[in-house]
Amino acid sequence: MEQRWLGNRKVGAIGFGAMSFGGMFGPTDEATSLRCLDAAVDTGISHIDTANIYGMGLSEEIIGKWGCRDVHLGTKCGIINGPPRAVRNDEAYIRECLEESLRRLRREHVDLYYIHRRQPEIPIEDLAGTMGRLVQEGKIGGYGLSEVAPSTVRRAHAEHPLTAVQNEFSLWTRLPQLGLIQTCRDLGVAFVAFSPLGRGMFGRDPLKRDFRAGIDFRDTNPRFVEPNFSANLAAIAPFRALCAERGWTVPGAALRWVLGQGEHIIPIPGTRLAAHLGDWNPPALKASDLEEIGDILPAGFAHGDRYGDHQMAFVERYC
């Protein structure tokens, strides 16, 4: 697998998002998740991304039991699931969450530690100072921010250099191209793209609307409810046809498009099943192929917002 810089270390250009290990997209078990991690490393993946809120610690516990020390590992804190949903960025809370994550991960150090959502009442310079102290103490290798605006990135980076920014980015979520991806490039900060396969919409086969009510959040997500769901399937169908015609896998082509938007971009698709990993191999595409994909799926084609209103509460908006 090609390599890209994540802080001061090169990792596989495609990372792995471990949200699914928390059971948030379908039933899974520890043995299945461990097999998936083994298979991910076998494909050349060397960065694993998780968070304390994924399965309320379950994802971190599974990764801790897996125990592989050869991968670059990132986790997050900051969201309080509630109800009500809230965020905390004060230093005491961040330190408490970090110690709990390290215990579950069975590590004394984590390579990358994100603030999952920013608490607006705390100046970003104060937050960056907290994260800088954790770096200096050797608790974390670097820090990141998630779902933030370009102005926040610049202010944080000026206080203590950022390692990465993680926001949603894919063929159907293009907002980061309106300044955030460019800001990260100019500052030398990695841009980690979560949900690069549209939460399964760009999977091997078209999704069916059989999400588990009350568990799989896609069940009430605006892009996955009718009539948006059927409209999105229809909009993506020509892209699927192009992939079949050219001999590309749908996930592979979608990931190649994301990778093609900048050398500092690292997508982190997720799965709970090792069998899906073989579909992620991105084909070698020409500039004309990427342009053709963009013509079939132009910016803004998606029907519905990417989050419901309650999930947008702590996402920074800048356009």
Explain the overall architecture.
It is a single chain. With 319 residues, the protein is α/β, with parallel strands linked by helices. It has one domain (3-311): NADP-dependent oxidoreductase domain (TIM Barrel). The protein has 9 helices and 12 strands. The protein has an 8-stranded parallel beta sheet. It has a two-stranded antiparallel ribbon with strand order 1-2. Helix 5 (150-159) links the parallel strand 9 (143-146) and strand 10. Helix 1 packs across helix 2, helix 4 packs across helix 5 (150-159) and helix 5 runs parallel beside helix 6 (180-187).
Number of helices: 9
CATH topology: TIM Barrel
Q: What percent strand?
A: 5-15%
Mean of residue pLDDT?
Answer: 94
The CATH architecture is Alpha-Beta Barrel
* Succession of helices and strands: EEEHEHEEEHEHEHEHEHHEH
The level of helicity is 25-40%
- The tally of structural domains comes to 1
User: What is the terminal-to-terminal distance?
Assistant: 35 Å
**Global outline:** globular
Label the structural class.
alpha/beta
Pfam family, one: Aldo_ket_red
InterPro entries: AKR, Aldo-Keto_reductase, NAD(P)_OxRdtase_dom_sf, NADP_OxRdtase_dom
Protein name: Aldo/keto reductase
Keywords: Oxidoreductase
